[in-house]
Amino acid sequence: MAASKRQIASNRRNAQKSTGPVTPEGKLVASRNAIKHGLHACDAILKSAHLTEDREQYEVLVDSLVEELKPVGILQEHLVLKIINAMWRYRRVINAETSRINRQLEDAADDIERGNFFGFQGDADEIDDETVAQHNANLVGSKSVPGESFRKSLMFYEMRLDRQLTRAIRLLQRLQEKMDSGSKPGMTETEKMDSGAGHPSTPLGVKSDEGDPSTALRVTSMNRPYGLRGWPGPQES
């Protein structure tokens, strides 16, 4: 049965009443939930028999960055999600480097325990305690950084993440600056948010300076990716 004109009009009135969150705080909560329950949020977390990442840590990162960046609208939420996932992957870079160094140090410890002196020139009688100590120190020191091949791969991946992070931050900044520039005198914060012409606060601690690339971005989170509230740093494997 086709809906009557009265039913259609009633549905339209109800739809107009249900506009979602109105206050800046409510919109931030909605953005946080949208990102948490997005498709990419689940895809970003590793889960296998040998390595399972902590979803709660991911959600702490989401909460911290949504609160700091204050995205408004689907496009800004998408950019914040890209920032979150880039930083989450950057965490893996640190963990991968730490794990490789730990493995190398374990190999060095095995060599020390076996008393291997590869490349030592001289008689066995010349190997005194001081020589042994120096050899062991040199061996451990040489294993405190990843090998060249692994290090290059890690640096390449890290550079890609840095570019993704910087690009997403710049796009988000431009969108939010555009919204701020469209606000009218006398508008309340709620009216700015409802009209899409304003933003509750300046995000990122970013200072625009087109003439000086070194100061184009002032992003606290990039300089301390593990300094977010409640988000732990790299863990040894």
What is the topological layout?
Elements: H1 5-17, H2 24-36, H3 39-43, H4 55-69, H5 74-114, H6 129-142, H7 148-181, H8 189-195, H9 220-223
Question: Can you characterise this structure?
Answer:
This protein is mainly α and 237 residues long. The protein has one domain. The protein contains nine helices and no strands. α2 packs antiparallel against α4, α4 crosses α5 and α5 packs antiparallel against α7. The longest helix is centred in the middle third of the chain and has 41 residues.
SS-derived structural category: mainly alpha
Strand tally: 0
Count of DSSP helices? 9
Shape: elongated
Low-confidence stretches: 205-230
Mean pLDDT: 72
How many structural domains does the protein architecture include?
Answer: 1
Q: Strand portion, in percent?
A: under 5%
Largest beta-sheet details? none
Q: How many whole angstroms does the radius of gyration measure?
A: 27 Å
State the share of residues found in helices, binned by percent. 55-70%
Q: What is the element string, with H for helices and E for strands? A: HHHHHHHHH
End-to-end separation = 64 Å
Explain briefly what this protein structure is:
By secondary structure, this protein is an all-alpha fold.
Features:
237 residues, mainly alpha, 9 helices, 0% strand, elongated
